[in-house]
Specification:
This protein is mainly alpha-helical. It has one domain (about 10-210). The chain is about 70% helix and about 5% strand. The protein is built from 8 helices and 2 strands, in the order H-E-E-H-H-H-H-H-H-H. It has a two-stranded antiparallel sheet. A hairpin with a 2-residue loop joins strand 1 (about 35) and strand 2.
Length: about 230
């Protein structure tokens, strides 16, 4: 029996590329602790919330199955980058190159951060997509704003609860980890709310251009069915 070909659109492909770039960028920026007034945050906050916004857009327009493919693609590309960076860090530098320690300070920590990021990212992203998908069905496609915000709160909370203890226990003071987690979730959610008007416009434009508005009724939410799109 001949199988029906599976296709993805050019816009979905472009969103996937941006998603992967955001994840890789966030992975590097996470190695820096930044101060916003008296609050300590990680540098990844600058870009990481964009990946959740893309996740929301993809899940809203193309459905959970495309979001699942997106999440695993991001995971694979992030893994590839981290492995190449770690390999480069292990290779001895040229005799005239004096930035070895600086390079190691960033990429030497990256494997631990990457491991924590991989686990947290998969759990948080799938929670985000699942909540978004289920809420769309239950609300019959209404209240996109509420769905986008609530799915982000659930996803980011799971992400932070897993990421920060794994990535920073023993690296930063233990007393700083819980406040860091709290402020990360709060700021990332505020980020989503701030750009929500733009997200809504993007979603409407995507639906109009693609002619798609998928409802995930009766689908298999198994996270391992990667190519069931």
């Amino acid at each position: 029996m001949e199988q029906k070909p599976q296709h993805v659109s050019v816009l979905f492909m472009l969103f996937s590329i941006l998603f992967c770039v955001c994840l890789i960028t966030a992975n590097v920026l996470e190695t820096k602790q930044i101060a916003v007034g008296p609050i300590s945050l990680t540098g990844g906050l600058i870009v990481f919330p964009i990946s959740y916004i893309i996740n929301d857009c993809v899940c809203e327009v193309w459905g959970y199955r495309k979001a699942r493919l997106l999440i695993w693609t991001g995971f694979a590309m992030n893994f590839f980058f981290v492995m190449m960076a770690a390999l480069c860090d292990l290779i001895p530098g040229a005799s005239y190159w004096t930035l070895g320690q600086s390079f190691h300070d960033i990429f030497g920590l990256a494997p631990r951060i990457a491991f924590a990021s991989f686990i947290a990212f998969l759990c948080g992203s799938f929670v985000n997509a699942y909540v978004m998908s289920k809420m769309k069905i239950s609300s019959q496609g209404k209240n996109f704003s509420a769905r986008a915000i609530l799915s982000t709160i659930f996803g980011e909370s799971v992400d932070s609860l897993i990421f920060f203890p794994l990535a920073f226990f023993g690296v930063i003071p233990t007393a700083e980890i819980l406040p860091l987690m709290f402020w990360q979730v709060l700021f990332k959610t505020a980020y989503e709310i701030l750009v929500l008007p733009l997200t809504i416009r993007v979603v409407h434009a995507l639906k109009a251009h693609e002619g798609e508005d998928v409802y995930d009724e009766g689908i298999d939410y198994n996270v391992l069915r990667i190519f069931n799109i």
